[in-house]
Design a protein that fits this description.
The complex is a heterotrimer of chains A (347), B (253) and C (287).
Chain A lengths: L11 H20 L2 H27 L6 H15 L8 H23 L4 H21 L9 E2 L6 E2 L2 E2 L7 H25 L1 H19 L3 H27 L1 E2 L6 H14 L6 H19 L3 H15 L39
Antiparallel strand pairs in A: 1-4, 2-3
Helix pairs in contact in A: 1-6, 2-6, 2-8, 2-9, 2-10, 3-4, 3-5, 3-8, 4-5, 4-8, 6-7, 6-8, 7-8, 9-10
Chain B lengths: L9 E10 L2 E11 L4 E5 L6 H9 L6 E6 L2 E2 L5 H7 L1 E4 L11 H12 L14 H13 L15 H13 L5 E5 L7 H14 L4 E5 L3 H7 L2 E6 L2 E6 L1 H6 L1 H8 L4
Parallel strand pairs in B: 3-8, 3-9, 6-7, 7-8
Antiparallel strand pairs in B: 1-2, 1-4, 4-5, 9-10
Chain C lengths: L1 H31 L6 H19 L5 H19 L9 H23 L15 E3 L5 E3 H23 L1 H11 L2 H5 L4 H23 L9 H16 L4 H21 L1 H18 L10
Antiparallel strand pairs in C: 1-2
The chains are: A mainly alpha (347), B alpha/beta (253), C mainly alpha (287).
């Protein structure tokens, strides 16, 4: 009698398809060249970031343009904790990176969530850029040049997982994949909880949720902080993958890219951003091989995706005209509440 | 006012709300007694919806106070007001169309009652909330509809769902914004019977355009014109009030 | 004293340029409901137009009219070919559409002009300083920038506050459905607003070109500061954008002059405070 959360597969077949996808990803390094394994890791990290943002966009209906800042901040935390020459265990760096990113998100959310719609976009973007400028304009993280760091190591019971140099990319790949699967399952669980239903209600009609007696502000703040912490996990993984940080990873283009991956993969499914991230990473790779004008190709693809595929690869809804979107103008109560709904088709 | 031994459940004192130069609600003082069905009528633009929004907390008044059982709730935010016992329905059907009927009502129950197992338990396991939701559905006459998708039901059933959602928080006061809007005769009759039965153990304040209905069911009426109370009292008194007849009812009475 | 005076004038000049950008941003959103992230690219294009015109004709005098004309044309094309299909789309779609435009404009700039930094010379006629006090003189060109900005701002205010179309635009920014209800030719209004907003951003870019160098991605920073201006000024309010732009211009310039260590984040702190106290903006009229 209880309904399956909208963003999760409805049938066993759907879950089986996801499992097959996960197994395919797990088998990939056995057949791919080291270069492609590294590319795969990059794609998985992008998927982690996009998935964390889906908690805001697809689940709660909050479009943030500052999400990349928490990702980048966490990567810098790894640099502070594990500077070049003194690697630290992942058990230390990951929780701290997530905690700091989550707290930063809570602080930003405290201000940004006082606004809605267009304002929320602008405010999240501005605060994100503030964090960017802190690392861009000061020397604390190596300034604009960036800095090298020691990749966190995996150790347990005094044993350190020490792969030969050639196999290290594969190790990182599996760490990223494990993290992605855990994050997906954790979010799938969250969607099934009472709290998940509140977020879902907020996305559809926040005003109605308030009138029912829900403290939507608090729920949004929790979601925003949680998403920030998960973005932090992605940023941590990036630092672990690249061993290098620079301000570019904090910039708002990162946030826009993550949004694009969500749109490309689909808002209507929790796994949408993963598909979108894999597709986008592959696409930029191909574009980079074909032409020097990579951004032009990317831009045109985005344009095409927005115009032709407004609901992404996983929930293809072709050429459907837009529904009225949330209108940030209207004073409370005087307009049609259905106008407030940001409806998303997922069928 | 609050020191006098009043039986009032909900009371407003000189409540006003201005939008720029326009005064939508002007010095409105009204009293809602327990187990009373109080209808607010008035022409379009009389400030009825604004009044409901003030009472529910979606708008804050420019001046004046609102008390609930003697406690000042004038500036209490919307969601906390629900916890204190005020629930509202909307003029335009405002249910979660893609969710099941049960899920709609359960969300409402969840807002008012902390689930026994905490917020981070599976929604399927929150038995206490589900039970409350079923009870509210039964009261609103929708026990058959629990597993229907809300958006697929008839308009009348969706209006009933609105009522069930307000009931799920077990409120003292129900604010109903045109509960009969867009209903056929049969549906309206059913709704009228439902409201009558609710008035036996709730206080109802409702806005309605259907005069026959209002005169039939209301215990008390307030006529609002241009944001000001033109008359208030028993339906019979209001019907015979010269000013009301002149300004509003016209040839109706 | 003279340093202070210079900072004051710099702040005024910076604030006025910000206003030209932010007013377009807030107008386009207020009337059309479109979030234009590519508005910063318009500023960048204006700067490159100034560079191209001066290196082709040797004169900066042509740059401003060329930028305004170019802005009107570019704005009209964007509105006709893209924006009008996105008025009712979700924010996410609008964000990505205009983000794509940023990438495309940057790549086209790289294709046609390259990735080098360029400087645009101040016209020799204006390449002198005007003495203000016995110890202080101020660049004549910056005075001209202040003057042109004020003139453009005055024209904008006249258009919004005193003309029939302006009245409709104000109404539309308050209640977007008004335009349709009144049966006004909404298409013409939309086209005009985007054209004017774009032209103002290009004009700002052209005016600013001789003051800083002309370089790739230069629009990004201006875009984000303009967002802060709009947030602090209150949405849809041109006069709010004006005062807010001047405030930001002053705080940023003074901060860089006197407290360089914290200048970078001072305006964001201001934004945070405004959001706490008046979430609808300092000059917003909304309840």
């Amino acid at each position: 009698m209880t309904q399956a959360p909208r963003l999760l597969p409805e049938t066993k077949t759907g879950w089986a398809a996801l499992a097959v996808g996960a197994i395919a990803l797990a088998l990939m390094p056995l057949f791919a060249s080291p270069y492609h394994v590294e590319l795969g890791t990059t794609a998985l990290i992008a998927a982690l970031l996009a998935l964390s943002l889906q908690l805001l966009v697809g689940v709660t209906g909050l479009v943030s343009l500052g999400h990349g800042a928490f990702y980048g901040l966490a990567a810098y935390i790894v640099y502070f904790l594990s500077p070049e020459g003194s690697p630290q265990p992942i058990w230390l760096t990951l929780p701290i990176a997530m905690l700091v990113a989550g707290l930063a998100a809570a602080l930003v959310g405290l201000f940004a969530l006082r606004t809605k719609g267009f304002f929320f976009l602008m405010v999240t973007l501005a605060f994100g850029q503030m964090i960017f400028f802190v690392f861009h304009d000061t020397k604390i993280g190596g300034g604009t040049d960036g800095a090298y760091l020691a990749k966190p190591i995996i150790s347990a019971f005094g044993m350190t997982l020490d792969l030969p140099r050639r196999q290290r990319p594969i190790g990182t790949y599996y760490v990223a994949l494990t993290q992605l699967i855990i994050t997906y399952l954790a979010l799938a669980w969250l969607l099934r909880t009472l709290f998940g239903r509140v977020l879902e209600g907020i996305r559809v009609n926040e005003h109605r949720m308030q009138a029912l007696g829900h403290n939507t502000q608090r729920a949004k703040l929790i979601a925003f902080s949680l998403a920030g912490a998960l973005a932090g996990a992605a940023g941590h993984m990036w630092a672990m993958h690249r061993g290098f940080v620079n301000p570019e990873i904090i910039g708002w283009h990162k946030s826009a890219e993550a949004l694009l991956m969500i749109l490309l993969g689909g808002l209507g499914a929790l796994h949408g951003p993963i598909i979108g991230a894999l597709a986008y990473t592959g696409l930029t790779e191909v574009a980079g091989l074909m032409t020097e004008r990579k951004l032009l190709v990317e831009g045109l693809v985005i344009l095409l995706a927005v115009i032709v595929l407004p609901k992404g690869l996983s929930g293809i809804r072709l050429f459907s005209l837009a529904k009225p979107s949330g209108n940030p103008h209207d004073p409370l109560g005087d307009t049609d509440p259905s106008q407030r709904e940001v409806k998303i088709d997922n069928d | 006012m609050t020191n006098s031994p009043s039986t009032a459940l909900l009371q407003t004192t000189n409540l006003s709300r201005r939008f720029g130069g326009l005064t939508a609600v002007n010095n409105v003082s009204l009293i809602l007694e327990p187990n009373e069905l109080h209808a607010v009528i008035g022409p379009n633009g009389a400030g009825k919806s604004t009044l409901v929004n003030l009472l529910s907390g979606e708008l804050l008044p420019s001046s004046g106070t609102i008390t609930l059982t003697g406690q000042n709730v004038t500036r209490v935010p919307v969601h906390r007001r629900v916890h204190q016992g005020i629930a509202r329905s909307f003029q335009r059907t405002n249910v979660f169309k893609e969710m099941t009927v049960l899920e709609n009502v359960r969300l409402a129950a969840q807002a008012a009652f902390a689930p026994a197992g905490g917020l981070f338990q599976s929604s399927a396991r929150a038995r206490d909330l589900v039970d409350r939701a079923h009870a509210a559905l039964k009261r609103a006459g929708l026990p058959w509809a629990a597993s229907h998708i809300a958006g697929t039901m008839s308009h009348g059933a969706q209006r009933q769902l609105e009522i069930a959602m307000t009931l799920a928080s077990e409120p003292k006061v129900l604010l109903l914004d045109e509960p009969l809007a867009g209903m056929g005769q049969e549906e309206a009759d059913r709704m009228a019977a439902l409201l009558k039965s609710l008035a036996t153990d709730h206080a109802l304040l409702l806005i309605e355009h259907d005069m026959d209905f209002v005169f039939k069911v209301a215990d008390h009426m307030t006529v609002l014109v241009e944001g000001t109370v033109l008359a208030t009292g028993k339906p019979a008194d209001v019907r015979n009030n010269q000013a009301v007849q002149h300004a509003y009812l016209g040839g109706h009475a | 004293m003279s340093v202070f005076l210079a900072q004051l004038l710099n702040g005024l000049q910076y604030g006025l340029l910000l206003f030209l950008i932010a007013s377009g941003l807030t107008l386009v959103f207020g009337v059309l409901g479109i979030i234009n992230l590519a508005h910063g690219s318009m500023f960048m294009i204006g700067a490159y137009v100034a560079y191209a015109v001066t290196s082709w004709s040797g004169s900066l005098w042509l740059a401003l009219p060329a930028a305004i004309l170019g802005g009107i044309i570019l704005g009209s094309i964007l509105e006709r070919c893209l924006f009008r299909y996105f008025y009712k789309r979700e924010h996410l779609d609008q964000v990505l559409l205009t983000f794509a435009l940023i990438l495309i404009f940057e790549e086209l700039r790289s294709l046609f002009v390259g990735n080098d930094f360029h400087s645009v010379p101040i016209p020799s006629l204006l390449d002198f300083s005007i003495p203000i006090t016995s110890t202080f003189s101020y660049s004549a060109y910056r005075f001209v920038v202040i003057g042109v900005c004020l003139a453009l701002a005055a024209a904008l205010f006249y258009w919004i506050e005193r003309t029939k179309m302006g009245a409709i635009i104000r109404a539309a920014a308050e209640k977007p459905e008004m335009v349709d209800v009144l049966g006004i030719d909404a298409r013409r209004i939309h086209l005009t607003v985007v054209a004017v907003g774009t032209a103002l951003a290009l004009a700002a870019g052209a005016l600013n070109a001789p003051l800083s160098s002309v370089y790739p991605n230069m629009g990004d920073g201006w875009l984000i500061i303009s967002f802060v201006v709009v947030v602090i000024g209150g949405l849809g309010s041109i006069s709010g954008a004006f005062w807010s732009a001047l405030l930001i211009g002053m705080i940023d310039t003074m901060g860089k002059g006197y407290f360089p260590a914290v200048a970078g984040i001072s305006i964001y702190v201001l934004m945070a405070v405004v959001l706490l106290v008046r979430p609808n903006g300092l000059f917003g009229q909304r309840t």
